[in-house]
Amino acid sequence: MRKLLLLPLLATLPLAALAQGNLDWAYPKTPPAEPHDSVALKQVPGSTRKYTQAQIDDPFNPPDWFPNEHPPMPTSVARGTKPAARACAQCHLPTGDGHPESSSLAGLPVNYIARQMDAFKNGDRTGVRAAVMILIAKAWSDADIRAAAEYYAALKPTPGFNKVIEADRVMATYVGPGGMRFALTDGGIEPIGPRIIVLPDNPERASLRDPKSGFTDFVPRGSIAKGAALAAGANGRFVACTVCHGPTLQGLADVPGITGRPATYMFRQLNDMKTGARKGPGTELMKPIVEKLSQDDMIALAAYLGSRDP
Ligand code: HEC
Ligand code: HEC
Q1: CA 129/CA 109 separation, integer angstroms
Q2: Which atom of ligand 2 is nearest to the CA of 125?
């Protein structure tokens, strides 16, 4: 139904979306929530649990499809308290692989996660998609945040959950519930332009928050090789990413890993650090680099990083 309603808008969509500087693809605007079905019980492959869509989208008690496949979740990850202390698992999933409109958290350093929660609270992270995190970070106690940070830091990100494919053209898409992007049925295809278009591999399962249903980032052709050259320092234009993010870019001490993570999230962060929407002591180290990056460079870096194992 939603798809049909959107069709009249489509004629104007591709041009607007491709215009230089329009970053809606990286900062999807979450549409108003729709009424939830609290009757039909849904399932995902391999799980014996059943939830209604209303339960699946409950920010204070999100689904846990595979309770035996992760360590016990602390309260802040599993359950929230109204009005603002939402459970982390709703958006970052019990696995920490997360949805691309949010972020992955699995395997990030404990201190890094805790510092980011401070950054959301103290005004250092004000990016367009940070609004919900600012409310959440303010609502939980330091002890609850620490417990969530320790839980996610101990998890291993799932290789292959995020995949990168180079393409000249992509399916026409729209942003649906929760800020997730979906292909329009019969929407046709359009040039990819200077964008990363991320789609769930299985839209139905992703909507059910199935943590085993991953995502594919479609990126402009040539991005991965270009990103690899930039990551190596672009012939001495700036310091190679490995110097701080580790030899495999999977993280070093308190510096976060940056491979195999959602490419649109990576782009958003580079861009936020460039515009100043993300700042703070850690970000100072990134500044001399992001100042020299164009939007196309950041797309290429995000594509390259996303194409590597987490
Ligand atoms: C309603 C969805 C939602 C919930 C619930 C949520 N987050 Fe987030 N989180 C986001 C979004 C969206 C972003 C990306 C912000 C951006 O792009 O600037 C994010 C980003 C983050 C980041 C930054 C990751 C990085 O690599 O720097 C951390 C840390 C984080 N969240 C921790 C948490 C914790 C801990 C909880 C639970 C206490 C939580 N989040 C609950 C949506 C959510
Ligand atoms: C001089 C050290 C240094 C170098 C070199 C460096 N980074 Fe970083 N980077 C950091 C630090 C420190 C952070 C964490 C910032 C914070 O704490 O807010 C970071 C954060 C990031 C983030 C945000 C991660 C997240 O989870 O939100 C991205 C993306 C990133 N770096 C990409 C890169 C890329 C790409 C390169 C190479 C082109 C690079 N960095 C080179 C130090 C560095």
Answers
A1: 22
A2: 18
